[in-house]
Fold this sequence. Notes:
CATH topology: Rossmann fold
Structural class: alpha/beta
Largest sheet: 5 strands, parallel
CATH class: Alpha Beta
Number of strands: 5
Radius of gyration: 15 Å
Helix content: 25-40%
CATH superfamily: Dehydroquinase, class II
Number of domains: 1
Order of helices and strands: EHHEHEHEEH
CATH architecture: 3-Layer(aba) Sandwich
Bound molecules: 3-dehydroshikimate
Distance between the termini: 17 Å
Amino acid sequence: MPAAQHTKRVLILNGPNLNMLGVRQPEVYGRDTLDTIKAACTTFATQRGWTLDFRQSNAEADLVTWIQQAREGADAVIINPAAYTHTSVAILDALLLLETPVIEVHLSNIHKREDFRHHSFVSRAATGLIVGFGAKGYLMALSALDDATD
Ligand code: DHK
């Protein structure tokens, strides 16, 4: 008998200032709001029968706690750590606890920007990265999970 399959649970985490998308440097981050991105991701996930938990926090501690909880509560994590990408060993260490796929997303192409944005602590824990495609990057990350383990 095939093993019982459970619904894929995807956690999408967003770091500081991403709650300001739409008004925040639209020439860099685009005009989509986080709510619009959440709606598009929810539609994508629902079509596949996945559950989606989409969160944002300006606090590093929230992100670390949510990542720790994902050990039990999620089958895949998509994360845009925003500015914490370039500073947070704590978020890296939390992500290293996970055995699930981890996809790092950035709206902007961080390698085309200031030098301090070129380094990501988080990438050491990432299965893959999607950068520079704006809001579409979130859907590209979800799409990458289509083929990942159920
Ligand atoms: C978002 C941020 O807030 C910046 O601090 C990062 C990232 C880039 C993004 O492109 O999504 O440097």
